[in-house]
């Protein structure tokens, strides 16, 4: 497994990402994560829809909270052809509690806590923390990666406008 030291930072300190990140034009790797109902969820379940696939370190942190709330609002604007799927290493119970408290009803949250399969397949597993780096992928209806945004500083939000533009370009 490849290691990419310094690919991201946390408060300026360099961190190492494990695995290889898919590139634009490649087929998005399928993965199994766990829903808040403790059921397996695969990316392939959403084939036929445009998927905004976001990875965050932990829903229950200020920047992740802001990001998911923002994507929840934007989801309503994007329509039913788009699914926003957020992956974190939080336990499904914690995700359910946070989503309920935050009123999240449009973003689907899933957990990568078991095998860290998503993190490894997408090259966003932070070796030092075993959390996911803040990343956004846009996957088209056929499962092809059309956009990748790795947020260099884990404590920063993604560029939402770029994500929306990428979604609009594949709708």
Describe this structure in words.
There is one protein chain. The protein is of the alpha+beta class. It has one domain: Glutaredoxin. Helix content is 26%, strand content 32%. The chain contains 4 helices and 11 strands, in the order βββββαβαβαββββα. β3 (32-35) and β4 (40-42) form a beta hairpin. α1 packs parallel to α4. The mean pLDDT is 96.
Q: Overall pLDDT, averaged?
A: 96
In CATH terms, what is the architecture?
3-Layer(aba) Sandwich
Number of helical segments with 4 or more residues: 4
How far apart are the termini?
Answer: 34 Å
Decide which structural class fits the backbone: alpha+beta
- Give the total of domains: 1
* CATH homology superfamily name: Glutaredoxin
Task: Note the overall shape.
Answer: globular
Spatial strand arrangement across the major sheet: 4-3-7-6-5-10-11
CATH top level label: Alpha Beta
């Amino acid at each position: 497994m490849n290691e990419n030291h310094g690919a991201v930072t946390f408060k300026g300190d360099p961190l190492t990402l494990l695995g290889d990140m898919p590139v634009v034009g490649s087929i998005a790797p399928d993965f199994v994560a766990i829903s808040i109902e403790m059921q397996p969820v695969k990316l392939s379940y959403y084939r036929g829809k445009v998927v905004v696939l976001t990875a965050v370190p932990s829903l229950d942190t200020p920047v992740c909270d802001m990001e998911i709330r923002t994507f929840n609002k934007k989801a309503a604007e994007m329509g039913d052809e788009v699914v926003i799927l957020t992956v974190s290493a939080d336990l499904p119970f914690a995700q359910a509690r946070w989503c309920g408290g935050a009123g999240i009803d449009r973003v689907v949250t899933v957990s990568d806590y078991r095998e860290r399969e998503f993190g490894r397949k997408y090259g966003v597993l932070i070796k030092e923390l075993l959390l996911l780096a803040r990343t956004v992928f846009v996957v088209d209806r056929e499962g092809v990666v059309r956009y990748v945004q790795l947020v260099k500083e884990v404590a920063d939000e993604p560029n939402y406008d770029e994500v929306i533009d990428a979604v609009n370009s594949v709708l």
